[in-house]
Amino acid sequence: MQETTADADFLLDNLFFAQIEGEEVQRGKVHVKLRVKKAIHACELNFQIEGVVQVPCDRCLDYMDVPVATNEKILVKLGKTYGEEGSLIVVPESDGYINVAWLLYEFVSLAIPMKHVHSPGKCNKSMTGKLKKHLRGGDDDESSEDMEDLDFDRSGDSMDEPVTDPRWDSLKDIYNNN
Ligand SMILES: [Zn+2]
Question: What is the Cα–Cα distance from 130 to 144, expressed in whole angstroms?
């Protein structure tokens, strides 16, 4: 059994992300190192992915840089029809090649953390202001007043803490004296 290896480098840039028309990532600069191990019946493809993508911040919707770094491995085999099974991909013999563009896009989007927000204070202020106004129906009250209102409601809620009845206090004294 003869094994050969090949290496290839890709740069996924803004053009790549624009052309692939994925929803999650539309901009970025990601380097991909591909190592191919060829065997007689299958190819093993190792992708080393590292770079930065720009996705909307969860809080202010402005684009923000999110670093991505991941390693992915797939096996490619020739077969009659196209098929995917876990990390095994069957490529039709008539085609004889695999288009890795969508795979790469998926690897990159999977590497993005679920939550991505700017670090504190870095959000687009005009945007967060607009969002706040929108959420609160356009009134301009400061949020600190809301907090005070909440505190007031809480202290007025008698269910939070057990009410101390003076009669039980005297009962306690009896027990303590025994
Ligand atoms: Zn933000």
Answer: 17
